[in-house]
Amino acid sequence: MIETKRLLLRLMTHNDLKAITRLFTDKNVLNAFNITALNGEQIKNWLNRNLKHQKKYGYGLFSVVLKTSNEVIGDCGLEHTVFRGTPCVEIGYDLLSKYWNQGYATEAASAVRDFAIQVLKIDSNSLCCFIRKNNVASRRVSEKIGMQKILEYSQNCTDYVLYAYSKNLGRQTVTSNL
Fold first, then answer.
1. What pLDDT is attached to residue 168?
2. For the chain, how big is the Rg over CA atoms in Å?
3. Which CATH class is domain 2-128?
4. Is the pTM of this model over 0.85?
5. 105 with 93: CB under 8 angstroms?
6. Please, what sign has the CA dihedral across residues 28, 34, 13, 4?
7. Which positions of the chain have pLDDT values less than 50?
8. Which of 32, 100, 108, 123 is deepest in the core (most CB within 10 A)?
9. How many other β-carbons are positioned within 10 Å of the β-carbon of residue 93?
10. How far is 20 from 96, CA to CA, in rounded Å?
């Protein structure tokens, strides 16, 4: 468990399905991702994918719990991935929109960054964030935790911005229809 001034970040469980369903049916969250609401099966698959990642690595996307109410308000954590052939660990975060613009995402992402570097001994040069280009708020969170914009690219007809601590992932603009 990771604790901040206002939040607890704990391993996600199957019991978080209701909270994850609220997250992925929040109209503002869906607009930020530029997607339509996920159905129950898609949400279960998302949760199971994260639980599988947790089992493999001992961590994944944590449930973000508001200390004052014990409410799960979103997720924030780490996910191993590969970008253009280079392994990296993404810091990801999603919060219910009623908790936006209150510093919770930055607080959680900062704590996850510190946990990754100090506890898990993950090299900061392998940490990254993949953010939809139009999601300005999430881009600001990455900048607030010290990441810099590395490159813009398109994948599956969606424009993204890669943020990282290292420029090792490249600076060129990449267009892909994977």
1. 62
2. 15
3. alpha beta
4. yes
5. yes
6. negative
7. 171-178
8. 108
9. 23
10. 9
